[in-house]
């Protein structure tokens, strides 16, 4: 489907092919094609666990990919691309790309909805003031988001890399961090008021479940931990991204299958909570 055909409350699946702001290893720009292959693989079906059939669903539309080589100027290109979706009242479900794309995406979401709750799954808080001199780094999007007042609340889940600078940034911006070392799954996501945006960095998962990421950080979430949180969310979900999958690091496409599973459950929940 073309972008122009989107209607209010549609879920628009889009790929943003960009990994120019990856600090350690490129590859995430190739993720959308691999995740789509996994999504449509004959080994599984297109029904979410909550019973939402995505195949031929009238409000689930794949609008394809766009390659955007992100530097500071091109952030505008991502923002206006997502804006084309939100201005039609549709909800973007974005396949990255590295995590740098979430800042321009949130500018478009903020324009459409005002500041929303962000439920951010990641091994890393991505709050660096800049990383190796790059304020657009994939290690910095949530610093830019918080500085620009684009989050009503920022709730981070799966964090296991807090250093001194990042702890100061957490304090400075009032970020709510659920660290792996003291995780209480039942307490997460039950008290958010108003719309939610989900930002899912694949390295939130333990590398045993998802080795296809650039930054292996042991001691992470299981796919079931994540599904439990998402399936319990009562809020309207106005957008989501799944970022940082790196096919070059994957083993037998197992991480692509996990990303596709998350895609199905998030899309199902987006459709269910908006009907
Ligand atoms: Mn990460
Ligand atoms: Mn990240």
Detailed description of the structure:
The chain is α/β, with parallel strands linked by helices and 275 residues long. The chain has a single domain, classed as 3-Layer(aba) Sandwich (Arginase, Chain A). The protein is built from 7 helices and 8 strands; from the N terminus they run βαβαβαβαβαββαβα. An 8-stranded parallel beta sheet has the order 2-1-3-8-7-4-5-6, with helices on both faces. The longest helix is centred in the last third of the chain and has 19 residues, at 254-272. Bound molecules: manganese (II) ion (2 copies). One manganese (II) ion (MN) binds at residues 99, 122, 124, 126, 201, 244.
Give a summary of the structure in a few sentences.
The chain has 275 residues and is of the alpha/beta class. Helix content is 29%, strand content 19%.
- As a percent range, the share of helical residues equals 25-40%
Sheet with most strands: strand arrangement: 2-1-3-8-7-4-5-6
Mean pLDDT over the full residue set: 94
SSE string, helix = H, strand = E?
Answer: EHEHEHEHEHEEHEH
**Alpha-carbon distance between the termini?**
21 Å
CATH level-3 fold name: Arginase, Chain A
Q: Treating each run of at least 4 consecutive H or I residues as one helix, how many helices? A: 7
What coarse outline follows from CA principal-axis ratios? Answer: globular
CATH superfamily: Ureohydrolase domain
CATH hierarchy: architecture: 3-Layer(aba) Sandwich
User: Could you name the CATH class?
Assistant: Alpha Beta
Radius of gyration computed on alpha carbons: 17 Å
Number of domains as seen in the coordinates: 1
Structural class: alpha/beta
Q: Give the tally of β-strands.
A: 8
What oligomeric state is this? single chain
Largest sheet: 8 strands, parallel
Bound molecules: manganese (II) ion
> Uncertain regions: pLDDT < 50 for 5+ in a row?
none
